[in-house]
Amino acid sequence: MEALCSNSGLDPLWDWNITWYTSTPDLTKCFQHTVLVWFPCVYLWTCSPLYLVYLQLRPQKGIIPLSKLCCSKTFLGLSLASFGLLEMFYFLVKNEEVQNHLLILLGPLIRSLTMVLAVVLIQMERIKGTRSSVLLFLFWMFLVLCSMVPLKVTIEQIIDQVSETDSSVRLSVYTSVCELYKNQCPEEDAPFLSKFFFFWFSSLVVRGYRRPLQAADLWTLRDQDSSVYIMTELDKFWSQSCKQLIHLLCSRSSAVPTEKTQLLKKNQEGRGCCLILLRALGRSFGLYFLVGTLCLLAHDAIMFAVPQVLSALLGFMRDKDAEMWKGLLFASLLFILSCLQSVLHHQFMFHCFTVGMRLKTAVMGLVYRKSLLMSSAARQQGTLGEIINLISADTQKLMDFVVYFNSVWIAPIEIALCFYFLWQLLGLPALAGITAVVLIFPLNGIIAKIRSKLQEVQMKFTDSRIKLMNEILGGVKILKFYSWEEAFLPRVNVLRDGELSALKTSQILYSVSLASFNSSSFLIALTVFGVYVLIDEQNVLDAQKIFVSVALINILKTPLSQLPFAVVSLRRLGNFLSQDELKPDNVERLPHSPDGDAVLVQDGFFSWSTSGPPYLQRINMMVEAGSLVAVVGHVGSGKSSLLAAMLGEMERRRGFVSIKGSVSYVPQQAWIQNASLKDNILFGGQRMESWYHRVLDACALLPDLDILPARDDTEIGEKGMNLSGGQRQRVSLARATYRRSDVYLLDDPLSAVDAQVGQHIFDRVIGPGGLLKGKTRVLVTHGLSFLSKADLVLVMEDGHISEMGSYMELMDRKGAFAKLIHTFSGTQRRESSRKSVSRLSVTDFSIDLSQEQLIRYEHQHQINTELMGLVDQDSVAENAGKLTEADKAHTGRVKLQMYREYFRTVGLTFIMTIVFLCAFQQATSLAYNYWLSLWADEPPVNGTQSDHQLKLSVFAALGFTQGLAMFGTTLAIALGGIVASRHLHTDLLYSVLHSPMSFFEVTPSGNLLNRFSKEIDAIDCMIPEGLKMMLGYLFKLLEVCIIVLLATPFTGLVLLPLTGVYVCIQSFYVASSCQLRRLEAVSRSPIYSHFNETVQGAGTIRAFGEQRRFILQADRHIDNNQEAYFPRFVATRWLAVNLEFLGNLLVLAAAILSVRGRHELSPGIVGLAVTHSLQVTGILSWIVRSWTDVENNIVSVERVKEYENTTKEAAWTLEGCSLPAAWPSTGTLQFENFGLQYRKGLDWALKDISLSIQDREKVGIVGRTGAGKSSLALGIFRILEAASGRILIDGINITQIGLHDLRSRITIIPQDPVLFSGSVRMNLDPFETCSDEDVWKALELAHLSSFVSALPHKLNHQCCEGGENLSLGQRQLLCLARALLRKTRILVLDEATAAVDLKTDQLIQSTIRTQFNDCTILTIAHRLSTIMDYTRVIVMDRGSIVEMDSPSQLLHLQGHFYQMCLEAGLI
What we know:
It comes from Amphiprion percula (Orange clownfish). By secondary structure, the chain is of the alpha/beta class.
C-alpha cells in the first residue's frame, strides 16, 4: 500500500507527525483516498450477498408501491453515481499520466459502482416488502463519517467547486433522514435509527401526555409476540419431548412399581420437564436472545474501553505540555463511548424484556393447556392457588432471570478482563484483589442456596394462601351464613405469617449479600492498593493509577451482583408440567353407528389415581344405541364415578371402554360460565333459532326468560351465582341438549328441580318422547318414577353393578332394587301420577338474593330510564343484562395519598432510620472517595509516599463503615416493606370479608385473586426493592453532583438546565407509564378468572371436546395483557435512552471543563470528578428504572386499597351488647311491617311482612319465581338489611346485635353443599368448640359415621378443594352434620336433600323431625311433599304474603297453594 501511495504521488498511508504529534491533526492524503473511500464500499459489497439471500429466504410481505420518497432516493443514488463518473472523466481529461494516479482514479469508480449497488438494494427491499434497512443505514452512516475529514480539508482549502464528496455528504444525510422518518409508529416498520433510539415509541408517550391512555390506544401485538405464533411450534415440540421423556422413564423403571420408585420417577419427570422446557424456550427464542447478547458484548467492549480513555485523559492532565486538542479529543471520546454504552445497554434490555414477555406467554400457555389435561389425582396436587402463583410470581421470576442469564457466563470473563487491565496498570499486586473475589463468591453462593430454599418455602405458603382465598371467595355465602369469617381469618393469617417469615429471613440474607457486593469494589481496591504500596516503597499511587483502577473495579459490581434466583420457579414449573395427565386410551372413541352398542364396558376396573385399590370393579355393561339407561344406588355407591369412567376421567386399571359418536355431559353440580344465558347454552355453537327455542321450552327455561332483564342476553354471573340451583341445572341440561350429540351422560340433572319441573323435563327432553329420543342416554337418578320408562336399569353398590336389567326384570327378581321400589312407591306414585303439564307456569320455587336483586333492579332501572329519558336506548339495551363489573383502571398519575398511605403503614420510625442510614452511607462514600483524591495528589518525596499505613487504615475504616451502613439501609427498607405489606394484606382481607354478598356477585373472583396474588407480590418485593434502589442512587447522584461541582464549579451552568430537562422528560413520561401499568394490571384479571373457570369446568370442557376453543380464549386474554405489557417496558427504555443522553452531557461538560482548567486543577480532583461523572449514566439508568418501578408498583397499593371504600356490612360484634348465652332460648320469630330493598329507590323485594312464628313451629315457605322466599331468609340472616320494619327473635331486634352474634345463633342448610380444603372435622367445626364425641354423634345422625370411620384418617381425612374427593350426596350430608353440631333453636332449610337417594332422604327427613323437634324450622320448599305435615305454610307472591295457614286449611281454601299442589300432582 505504501508503494502504491508513493507511485500515485501521494504521501505515506500513515504519518504520526501529521496525525498525533501536531497542534493541527490531520490524515494523510493516501489514507483519505484509500481507507476513507474504500471502507464503506467494501462493507456494502461484502454484506450485500448475504443480505440478498436473507431477503430471498424471508417470508414474502408483498411489494411496496413506488412512492415519492423511493423515487427520490433512487434518483439521488444514480445522480451520485454519475457524479463519480464525471469526476473520473474530468480527471482523465486533466491528467495525461493516468498510471501514476491510479489510487485517485479508483476512488470515484468504486464509489459510483457502490452507489449503483445501493440503488439496486433499495429496489430489492421495496419488492420484498422491507421498509427499513439496517444494512443501508450503516452504509450511509459510514459514508458520512468517512466524508467528514475530506469535507474539512475542502472547507479549509476554500475550494469553490463542489466536490463529489460533498454530494456524498448531502445524499447520505438526506437518505439517513429518510430512513429515520419513513415510519415512526409501529416497531415492525420503524427505521433502524428509530428502533435503535426508540423514537418509534414517542407517539404513544405524546398521546399519553395529552390524555389518559385507554386500551383502544394500545398497539396490537406483533405477530412474533402473539400466543398463536409462540405456542404453535412450542406446543408441538413440548408434546413430542414429553412423550419421549415418559417413554424413557418407563423403560428404565422397575417391573413392580413401589411408592419409593414412583416418587423417584416423579422427581425425574420434574427435572426432565425443566430441561425440556429450557430446550423448548431456547429453540423458540434463542436467536432473538442472541441478538441482544451481541449488543451486550459490544456494550462490555466499550465499557472496558472507557477506563483506557480515562487513563489517557489523566495522562494528558499530568503532562502540562500536551496539546489542548488531545484533551478535547479524550473528553469527546468519553462522551461518545458513554452514549454508545447507553444505547447498546438498552437495546440489550429491550431484547431481554421482549424474550421475557414471550416466555411469559409460553409459560401461561403451557400451564393452561396442562390444566385441561391433568388427571383427577394431579388436580388434587396442582390446586388453583398453585396455578395462579405459577402464572404470576413464578413467571415474573423467570422473566427477571432472562435479564440476568448472560451474567452467568459473562461475569467470569469480565472479572478476568478487569484483573488483566489492573495487572497491566499495577503489576502483580493487582492479582491480590482476587482474594476478595474468592471470599465474596462462596459467601454469596451459600446465601443464594439458602435463599432459594427459603423462596421455595415462601412459594408453598403463597400457593396455600391463594388456594384458601379462592375457596373463601367461592364459598363466601356459607362463611357469612355460618359466621365463619373469624375461623378462616386466622388460617389465612397463619399462611401469610409463614410467607412473610420466609421472606424476612431471605431479606436479611439478601442485605448481607448486597452489602458484600457493594463493598466488593472497596475490598478489591483495599487489597490491591494495600499490597501495591506495602510490597515496595517506591510504588507510588498517583491519580492515573488510583482512578483508572477504581473505574475498572467499579465494572466488577455488575457481574458480582447479578446471580439469578429463578431455579426454584423453574423447578416448580417443571413439577407442575410433569403431573399425570388423563390417558387418551382410557376410552376408545369410535364413529357413530345407529346399530350395535353405543357404550361398551368390559371387565372394567377404574380408580381415581394410579396407586391404591380400584374404586370401580368388575364393570360390565352394554348400552344399545338409542336406549335409555338409568343408574341408581345409594350415596357414594359409584354412580357419578361410572359416568366419569365412560368419559375417560378415571384411570382404567383393567378392561375395555368404548363410546361410539359424540358425547354430551351434564355434571351433577352444574358448571356455569360467567357469560350470558345464551352463550352458556350455545357453548360455542351456531344459533339455530327454531331448535334453540325448542330446547329452551323443553328445559322449562322460557318462563325464566320473561323475568330476566335482557332475556337470554342476561349475564348470569360467575358460577351462575344469580341463578337458583334448579335453574343452573336446567341451563346445564339445555347446553347438552342443544349439541345434538350421539351419547348423553346425565348425572342426576333432575335433583335440583321441583317434582313437576323434573317430570316436565323428563317427558320433554330425556324420556322416550323427548327431544333426545333416539339418542343414547345414561341417566343417573334418584327419581324412582322415571325408572319404569328406562330400557335398562343399573343398580350400583360399593363400586360395582349389583343388579342390571329392565325395570320389570328387576322387579320380578325381588332383590334389593325391588325392595327399595316397594318401600318408597307411595310418595313416588303420587308424584308420578299427576297430569303431564305441556306448558309450565311455574319453573322453579327457588331464587336467591342475586337473581331477585337483578330482576327488580333492572325492572326499576328500565322504568326510571323511560320516565327520565336520560339514557340512550341503545346503551340501555346493551347494559340491560350486565351483572359483573370488569376490573377498571384509574387514570392520571398515582395520587400522593397512595404514597402517604404506604409510608404510613411503614411507620415514621422506619422512615427516619432509612433516610438517616442512606445519608450516612453516602457521606462515608463521599469521604473515602475524597480521601483517595487526597492520596493521589500527595507528591512523592524521593520517589516514595509516606504514611501508607495511616492512609490504608483511614481508607479501610471508611469503607467498612459504608458497608455496614449499606447493610443497615437495605435491612431497614426490607423490614419496613414487610411491615407495610403485612398491614396492606390484612386491610385488604378485612375489607373483602366485611363486604356484603352483593359485592361478590358483581366482582369476578379474578379481580380479587389478582390483588391477593400479583398485587400483593408486588408490594412484598417490588416496592421495597424499587425504593431501596431509588434512595441509594438518588443519594449517589447527589454525591456525584457535589464532587463535580467542587472540582469544576462551572459545571453548575450545565447541571441546572440538564436537571430542568430531566424533570420535564420524567414528568412527561410518568403519566403514560402509570396508565400502562394500570391497563396491564386490569387486563390480568380476566386471565385469572378464565383459569379459575377452566379448572372448575375442565371435565365438562373435555366431555364436549371444546378444549381448542377455550385455549384460544385463554390466548386472547394473554395477548390482551401483553398488549399493555409491551409498551410498558418499552416506555422505560425510551425514557432511559433520553435521560442517559443528558447524563452523558454532564460527563462531557466535566471532562471539557477539567481539560480547560488543567492548570488550576490537580489530577486527583479531576480523576475523582471524571470517574464519578462517568457513573452518572448508570446512576440515571437505575434512578429511572427504580423510580418507574416504584411509581408503577405503587399502583398495586392503589388497587389493594380500592376495596377499602366500598360498602361494608354491619359490624360483626357490637360493644356493650351482651346477649344471653342461651339466646334464642325459645326460637320465636316476629316480623313487624318488615320491608326489604336491594337498593334505595328500587322496588320492594319484601313489603309489609307481618307475622309471628312461635317456638317449635314448622313453617314452609312457597311461592313462584321471584316471589321473595329467599329474600325472607336473607332478611333473617341480615344478608340484606331491613328497609322498613324489624325482625324480633325472642323479643330482641336483630339489627341491634352484631352480625356474628346473630348468625352464629341460627342455622341454615343451603341447597348447594360447600366444603373447604382441610379435615372433615374442620369442615364441621372450624372453631374446634365441640368434642370428638359430639362430632361422631352428628355424623351418625347424618348417616355418615360408617363412611368416615372407614377412612384411613377418620375425622382427620383431608377433603380436597371444594370437597371434590367426596360425592355430592356425601357433601350434603356433611352440611346436615354441621347443622346438627350447631344445636341452634332456629333452622332454615333450603332443599338440603336434593342430591341424595330416596332412602337417605327419608332418613334425613326423619333425623330433622326428631333432632330438631324442639327447634323452629323454616323450609324454603322445592318439593311440596316435604312440607305437607308442617304446622303452617306461607305462600308468597311479589314480595308479599298472600296466604298463610296450615296445609290442610290452605287446600280447603283452594287458593294459590291448592293450585301449586294440583300442578305438583299431590292432589
